[in-house]
Amino acid sequence: MTRSAPASTELLAIAVDVAREAADTAYRMRAEGVSVAATKTTVTDVVTAADRAVERQVLDTLAKLRPDDAVLGEEYGAGEGAGSGVRWIVDPIDGTVNYLYGIPYCAVSLAAEVDGDMVAGVVRNLYTGEEWTATAGGGAWRDGRRLRCSTETDLGQTLVATGFGYDAARRAHQARVVAELIPQVRDIRRQGAASLDLCLAAEGRVDAYYEKGLAAWDLAAGGLVAAEAGLRVGGLEGRPAGPDLVIAAPPALFAPLHDRLAALDASGGP
Questions:
Q1: What number of CA atoms fall less than 13 Å from residue 66's CA on the CB side?
Q2: Which of 126, 131, 62 is nearest to 94 (CA)?
Q3: Which end of the chain has the lower number of beta carbons within 10 A, N or C?
Q4: Gyration radius of the chain over CA positions
């Protein structure tokens, strides 16, 4: 019997409902107070009780709605499905340090892939309620408006978003890259949540974005939103976007930004 893949619009509808409920939970828990539950790669890489509670809520809801699907989450890792071909990728709170400090730049990110291809995604800022969605081939959207990326063509006039890792040695390397890049562009923005940075690039609120060290849950939904808004999303030397480096830029800017980052060894260091 041939398995039929669910429509991307069906998966997006589920993702939106689940992400909204998760964002509501995260917002409520922040209002009630935040506790650090653990650290991960370094003492500055924190996990709050809300990260775990929100991801558990997402996992439980998806298990009820689509019990045969697999899930990959930041806090609880991978859960295998029963062969549906669908895998959900969730970051319960992207921008945990912002969340810990009450900075309103953090989001729930949830994406669905079918047989390895990203087909639907949603990113929701849990403070502002801003919500970005995309389906493969269906465009990127916010508040009923289809998104188009920046039309900037001059690297020198480009506002570039980026982020830093938690490891001190990696941050030092990334800081050296920024120090060399900043005279070549309009300016740099470092805001602390990769999924939201990608969504801002999708609607031209920044022109481009790059970062080393992103995990699948950082990139999945935001990367789809960016690509569907017309950004070229990739890595260095023709490689796909991934932990080594993610570059998201309008087609006219991708090559000059790529070449500058390659010359600066942006994918290097720890």
A1: 25
A2: 126
A3: N
A4: 18
Report the pLDDT averaged over residues 9-25.
Answer: 98
Q: At what angle do helices 49-65 and 8-32 cross, to 10 degrees?
A: 150
pLDDT in the model for residue 1: 39
Domain ranges of the chain: 8-138, 155-263
Considering only the top CATH level, what class is 8-138? alpha beta
CATH 3.40.190.80 corresponds to the domain 155-263: yes
3-state secondary structure of 186: coil
The Cα–Cα gap between 196 and 209 comes to 11
Distance between CA atoms of 187 and 181, rounded to whole angstroms?
A: 9
- Check if the beta carbon of residue 197 is closer than 8 Å to that of residue 222: yes
What are 179's two structure tokens?
């120090």
| Residue 8 token pair | 């991307």
| C-alpha–C-alpha distance, residues 113 and 145, integer Å | 24
In the block, residue with structure tokens 């800022």: 125
Tokens representing 203 are 């609607």
